[in-house]
Amino acid sequence: MNEDTIFEKILKGEIPAHKVYENEYTFAFLDIAPINKGHTLVIPKLPTRNILSVDQKTFGHVMETVRFLAPKIKEATGADGINIGINNEPAAGQVVFHLHVHIMPRFIGDGKKLWPGKEYLAGEADIVLNSIKKLL
Ligand code: 5GP
């Protein structure tokens, strides 16, 4: 349980947020520090740390809300595209430990870059692939 995150406080109405949408399972609100205007966070009402521990149904509800909202946010903001992002654990940039999906409006020439890719050395792709497949 993540009783004390800022997002629980938003869910309980203890601190204000610009609510975009709400249903039985999920809540969506404007990010306080948007990458671009309209940047929205979708969270489950059930406290859940991140994608590494969320149950299938809860994640399904969250992603359905993301699917519902993304085109509407794109249209409302006049964005040219949308990034969908989830940061999981501090190494991946997670700061608030209540699962949240970022819906980020993007504009041609907005200057925000995606992360740079790097190359596999010989044999590295097979090694990591085998490690992943062993767990499937
Ligand atoms: P993370 O890095 O954990 O994926 O992203 C957390 C996000 O929550 C950040 O983009 C940050 O701007 C947003 N955020 C943090 N505190 C608040 C808050 O009190 N209200 C709102 N609306 N967003 C917040």
Please, could you describe this protein's structure?
The mean pLDDT is 96. The protein is of the alpha+beta class. It is built from three helices and five strands, in the order αβββαββα. The protein has a single domain (6-134), classed as HIT family, subunit A (2-Layer Sandwich). Guanosine-5'-monophosphate (5GP) is lined by residues 6, 17, 29-33, 41, 87, 93-96.
What is the number of helices?
3
Q: What is the total domain count?
A: 1
Helix content: 25-40%
Ligands (ions, cofactors included): guanosine-5'-monophosphate
| Helix/sheet category | alpha+beta
Report the CATH superfamily.
HIT-like
Order the strands across the largest sheet as they lie in space.
1-2-3-5-4
Tell me the Rg in angstroms. 17 Å
Query: Uncertain runs with pLDDT below 50, 5 residues or more?
Result: none
In sequence order, what are the helices and strands, one letter per element?
Answer: HEEEHEEH
In this structure, how is the largest beta sheet organized?
5 strands, antiparallel
Q: How far apart are the first and last residues' alpha carbons, in Å? A: 27 Å
Q: How would the global form be characterised?
A: globular
Q: CATH topology, anyone?
A: HIT family, subunit A
Number of strands: 5
Range of strand content: 15-25%
Mean pLDDT: 96
The CATH architecture can be named as 2-Layer Sandwich
CATH domain class? Alpha Beta
